[in-house]
Design goal:
- The complex is a heterotrimer of chains A (about 100), B (about 120) and C (about 475).
- Helix content of chain A is about 75%, strand content about 0%.
- Chain A has about 100 residues and is mainly alpha-helical.
- The longest helix of chain A has about 30 residues, at about 60-90.
- Chain B is flat.
- Chain B starts with a helix and ends in a 7-residue tail after the last helix.
- The model of chain B has no long low-confidence stretch (mean pLDDT about 85).
- The longest helix of chain B is centred in the first third of the chain and has 28 residues, at about 1-30.
- By secondary structure, chain C is mainly α.
- Chain C has 19 helices and two strands.
- In chain C, strands 1-2 form a two-stranded antiparallel ribbon.
- In chain C, helix 5 runs antiparallel to helix 10 (about 235-260) and helix 13 runs antiparallel to helix 18 (about 445-460).
- The chains are: A mainly alpha (about 100), B mainly alpha (about 120), C mainly alpha (about 475).
């Protein structure tokens, strides 16, 4: 039987993969993808907790929906700024941003 | 518990087997007589001109972003619609305020010219 | 459940949202060359909302099972954000005029960021808290990169987005663990569930994630790396708003979650907070010394101020909370005052180098005097307001027996006097460069600067009314001194 623990392990693995991707990638879009993975891990956590611990309520579902929407807004703003940088500087690699010290 | 997965296992096995065996059979029985026309990338349709690895027009990404945002916002309508009959009338007005704000957003996008293909 | 909402309690938030949307719509209707009035409209609107908050005096209500809380603590911070927003709007008028595009958007985003902060301090529940936090930060992403032709501004924007989104993800993972372990998202119920149960290791993990997430937003060492870069690249008025209001908002939410939600785990997280506080005070002050750019200097100084603010949380008493409230108010006026001088100077000279402040006293006496008092107040010299603020914080931790912590904080304050005085020396003792004229300062900016200056001096000499207010608010919020 698949239990809550399976879901939690899956979520933590996904979170670690996302974190690694966000830290190791040198490309702004790659980093944003890693962050998306981290947020999806959070969603799995929320839904699993809701399903296994309080099946009658929907708080966890609602939380997940809000996370999805906010993440989309965040990524949209991020991509818009990257598009703008691309227009002005023609690059989307983070290491090219060396005007300020990292 | 394992029985529940047996049917899935058989399904995967048969599916993979079908794909691999048909490729294998085709490889054995097909005639091999290549000519330049057959080797070209586009056997039908137009020949490509210039480099094919070009960048998309920036306007495309703007469309995509606008679509993404509006598409995801609509997710809030679904729980509202599912529970519509149980909700008090004020929820109806609230949803109209929400849609009104989205319409202002669309108006903004339109006015800023992000919907034009320049 | 929805029928139980008393919408009159939400007046402030509704008005703020309406103001933000209204500015956006005005920007769409009015043709481009007539939009210069939007800034003044924003100031008037925010002033009106500030008046509305006066009617919330002493109101203490929650609704929807504690999802949203209107209490003196939240109202205090809302007023603080509104005052900060008004000062920032005034100081951004010349910048926006110079920019010449999307005037309405700028002010609209500023108002939405303020709305996010309001939701953040009033949230009694994790989802609401997250929404408020994101409304604030997403507005800030756009504001930081508002100079879209300027490479530095764009780079600051992208750095802010990446690091802030990452910290949000960490925070969310922590929130999901807290939700899983307590089966609720309402902070009051979290506290009662935790108090009833035994210590769970997973909860410790959740608390660490939350600390990291909030640490990013408050820019605590070692989560501070984004702050100097973003502060330097962002438009200066936005830097002021980021340094002051967003930090105060995140701190207020931090206080509410940790002091109301996790008092049962106090002994575990308070050690971590002490470590963060010590690191922040030491590193923030020491790294500020070699800076040559005034915005980076102020960035590091604001990092170190966050370290002092944490002392109030370490104290874990109503005295500590009162000290945080008092210090935040003073922090708003001193920091925004200093940044207004930077704005005034950079609009006429276009430079942020400290050496370009040489002889400022001869070229613009008002600017030099305001800067002098703001810096001395930040350093915490008597009889200015910053001294009183720090004094309350130090007393609060000494009451708890952390004498070494207070001594360290005093020592670091002395270090900070050194680098603030370096700037003062450049302004007053060095000769102004050749062919530099008198610097003209816009009227609105002058009024705002003089207002901050008077408050810094008056609150330093006669702090009693404000400190009484802060202490009484803190006492209703957190009536414990154990």
């Amino acid at each position: 039987m698949i239990t809550l623990n399976h879901y939690l392990v899956l979520a933590s693995l996904l979170f670690c993969i996302g974190l690694y991707c966000a830290i190791a990638k040198r490309n702004a879009i790659g980093i944003l993808m890693g962050i998306e993975l981290m947020l999806n891990a959070v969603n799995i956590n929320l839904i699993a907790f809701n399903r296994f611990l309080v099946p009658g309520e929907t708080t966890g579902h609602m939380f997940a929906i809000f996370v999805i929407v906010v993440a989309a807004a965040e990524v949209a703003v991020g991509l818009a700024i990257i598009i703008n940088i691309y227009r002005e500087k023609l690059s989307s690699a983070v290491e090219d941003f060396d005007w300020l010290k990292w | 518990m394992l029985e529940q997965f047996t049917s899935i296992g058989i399904f995967i096995f048969v599916g993979l087997g079908f794909a691999v065996s048909s490729l294998l059979v085709a490889w054995i029985v097909r005639p091999k007589r290549p000519n330049p026309l057959k080797m070209s990338t586009y056997e039908c349709g137009l020949e490509t001109r210039g480099r094919t690895w070009i960048q998309f027009k920036v306007s495309y990404f703007l469309y995509a972003l606008v679509f993404l945002v509006f598409d995801v916002e609509v997710v809030f309508l679904i729980p509202w619609a599912v529970e519509f009959l149980k909700l008090p009338w004020i929820a109806f007005i609230e949803m109209f305020i929400f849609i009104g704000i989205l319409v202002v957003g669309l108006w903004y996008v339109w006015k800023e010219g992000a919907l034009e293909w320049k | 459940m929805i029928a139980g909402i008393d919408f009159s309690l939400l007046t402030v938030e509704i008005f703020t949202a309406a103001l933000g949307l209204g500015l956006l719509i005005i920007n769409l209707i009015v043709p481009g060359n007539q939009r210069s009035a939007t800034g003044y409209l924003t100031v008037l609107g925010l002033l009106g909302i500030l008046l509305v908050t006066l009617s919330y005096e002493g109101v203490e209500k929650t609704f929807m099972d504690g999802m949203y809380i209107i209490d003196p603590f939240a109202t205090f911070f809302k007023r603080l954000f509104l005052v900060a927003a008004i000062l920032v709007t005034i100081s951004s008028l010349p910048f926006v005029k110079k920019l010449g595009y999307n005037e309405g958007d700028f002010f609209s985003l500023l108002v939405f960021a303020t709305l996010g902060m309001m939701v953040l301090v009033s949230a009694g529940e994790l989802i609401t808290l997250y929404l408020g936090l994101e409304l604030m930060t997403i507005s800030f992403y756009i504001l930081v990169s508002f100079k879209k032709k300027d490479a530095k501004s764009c780079e600051a924007g992208i750095k802010y987005i990446i690091l802030s989104a990452m910290s949000s993800a960490l925070l969310l993972y922590g929130l999901s663990l807290v939700y899983g372990l307590t089966k609720t998202t309402i902070i009051e119920q979290i506290a009662s569930t935790l108090a009833a149960g035994t210590m769970q290791p997973l909860m410790a993990l959740g608390i660490i994630f939350l600390l990291a997430g909030f640490g990013f937003k408050i820019s605590l060492v070692p989560f501070h790396m984004w702050a100097p870069d973003v502060y330097e690249g962002a438009p200066t008025p936005i830097t002021a708003f980021l340094a002051v209001a967003s930090k105060a908002a995140a701190l207020a939410a931090f206080v509410r979650i940790f002091l109301i939600g996790f008092p049962a785990y106090q002994e575990y997280w308070i050690t971590l907070v002490i470590v963060l506080s010590v690191l922040t005070m030491v590193l923030g002050n020491l790294v500020a010394i070699p800076q040559t750019n005034i915005k980076r200097l102020l960035a590091y100084s604001s990092i170190s101020q966050a370290g002092y603010l944490l002392l109030g949380i370490v104290a874990f008493s109503s005295m500590g909370i009162g000290a945080i409230l008092f210090f935040s108010i003073i922090y708003v006026f001193t920091n925004v005052g200093a940044f207004m001088v930077v704005v005034a100077l950079s609009t006429s000279t276009g430079s942020h180098k400290i050496e370009d402040y040489s002889g400022l006293y001869r070229r613009a006496p008002l600017l030099a005097v305001v800067m002098l008092f703001c810096l001395l107040s930040l350093a915490g010299l008597p009889p200015l307001a910053g001294f009183v603020g720090k004094l309350y914080l130090f007393i609060a931790v000494i009451e708890k027996g952390y004498i070494w912590l207070a001594l360290l904080a005093v020592l670091m304050s002395m270090v900070s006097v050194y680098y603030y005085l370096l700037v003062v020396k450049v302004m007053f003792l060095k000769e102004p460069p050749q062919n530099s004229g008198i610097i003209k300062v816009p009227n609105g900016l002058q009024i705002a600067m003089v207002f901050s200056l008077i408050l810094i001096i008056v609150l330093g000499i006669y702090p009693k009314p404000l400190s009484d207010l802060a202490m009484s608010v803190a006492h209703t919020f957190f009536p414990f001194s154990f």
